[in-house]
Amino acid sequence: MLSSALTASVLVSPPVWARPSPGRRHIAVAASPPVEQAVRTEDTEPLTKEDLVAYLASGCKPRHDWRIGTEHEKFAFNVETLRPINYGQVCDLLNGVADTFGWQRVFEGNNIIGLKKGLQNISLEAGGQIELSGAPLETLHQTCAEVHSHLYQVKAVGEKMGIGFLGLGFQPKWDLNDIPMMPKARYEIFQNYMPKVGSFGLDVMFRTCTVQANLDFSSEQDMIMKFRASLALQPIAAAIFANSPFKDGKLNGLHSFRSHLYTDMDSDRTGMLPFVFKNSFGFERYVDYALNVPMYFVYRNKKHIDCTGMSFRDFMAGKLPQVPGERPTLTDWEYHLGTIYPEVRLKRYLEMRGVDGGSCNTLCALPAFWVGLLYDDESLCTITDMVADWTDEEREMLRRKVPVSGLHTTFRGGYVRDLAKIVVKLAKEGLQRRGYKEVGFLKEVDEIIRTGVTPAERLANLYKTKWRHNVDPVFHEFAY
């Protein structure tokens, strides 16, 4: 049966996909807050599409259980040479944090690939970027405290090793060939497949960093409203927080080069998902979409098996050539959902994924922006009405033009900056009504909107003036 969190939502009676199939022992899935590992029991019966839909629906939870999850990546670099750190240094860094601050080590084979402490995880991205997946927290004050605690810990260990940390959307100085690949099996699979389906996949893997906010929903209808609002506004957020103006030691001519890369990475698993805005959208429609996204791998016997381009539907029928006769578990479904990269991603919560890595203030401001808009009914309804008549073509235009022109992008006779003013005002009002005194986390965003100068433009101005066309100072002046 489904979790109590789902049955306590506004879904009064179970829809078809929530009812156990006759004569079949149903799979129980416990709802969990953002970024918490799924709790599940799995039987020997083959998964059905109903099970996959029910898995997503099990994320529904009442408002008092809504939480805020954040994920943020950073570049680790050698303070002396400014080069990315190698895997040996990564090992020393992770072991140092584990020993000093009591984290549990996570291994793949004999290689340390991350750390875990309670519901927090520190993980390792393909090019050595260090990511914190934060615990599900109740207030933005807790989120900001978590950010500061994490940065304090990695800096305390890193400083002794000559390692610094930088929050930008794209590696500002080093070429793709200068970035070491971390020893995680899935990255080798990605590296071989991505050049076959897009121009920028390897750059996304090895040279980008992002900040992400993960938020809950109470019901299928609530999920739909939040998905549509956040997806439509993702380019607006990308414009406000644009922070990747450099490439290979020079200006790249864009505001958010990281966002631009996603326009030609892999069209099967990225984009603005026009079907989300159709009347037929819901949990089942997202499952249909995910089933159509080609697979990357299957994890069996502690090994990643390359299944690139294969169909999850064939896997469900036991017809995957790489693992003949094998059928997927909900863990496989989880893995598959995590290899889809649209601007907003649905798991058992919603992930807002469209923003460049940034300063410590950004790490607190980005979740504040989305909490103010999506966790307040009045703000959410206003946004929903505002974007209701935007067309697929307009949303795609914003996705493609905002990385180039940022807040100066034209839209319906005005500019994205005009939209951003409205949206930030709604976010502040939403935070005010929450009653936790969280509006102050949008102070930096207020300044960006007031001046019209994004982080990317500020960096570009410094590069042209104070830094005399040398990108190296960014590693010193903007390191955490």
Automatic annotation (TrEMBL):
**Keywords tagged on the record:** ATP-binding, Chloroplast, Disulfide bond, Glutathione biosynthesis, Ligase, Nucleotide-binding, Plastid, Signal, Transit peptide
Location relative to the cell: Plastid, Chloroplast
State a GO cellular component annotated for this protein: chloroplast
Q: Does the keyword Cell inner membrane apply?
A: no
* MF terms (GO), sorted A to Z: ATP binding; glutamate-cysteine ligase activity
- Signal sequence bounds: 1-18
**Which domain of life does the UniProt lineage start with?**
Eukaryota
Biological-process GO terms, alphabetical: glutathione biosynthetic process
Give the intrachain disulfide bonds.
C144-C364
Enzyme Commission number, as recorded: 6.3.2.2
Catalytic reaction annotation: L-cysteine + L-glutamate + ATP = gamma-L-glutamyl-L-cysteine + ADP + phosphate + H(+)
Pathway(s) annotated for this protein in UniProt: Sulfur metabolism; glutathione biosynthesis; glutathione from L-cysteine and L-glutamate: step 1/2
One Pfam family recorded for the sequence = GCS2
Question: Quaternary form?
Answer: Homodimer or monomer when oxidized or reduced, respectively.
The record's comment on protein family reads: Belongs to the carboxylate-amine ligase family. Glutamate--cysteine ligase type 2 subfamily.
Name of this protein: Glutamate--cysteine ligase
Source species: Eragrostis curvula (weeping love grass)
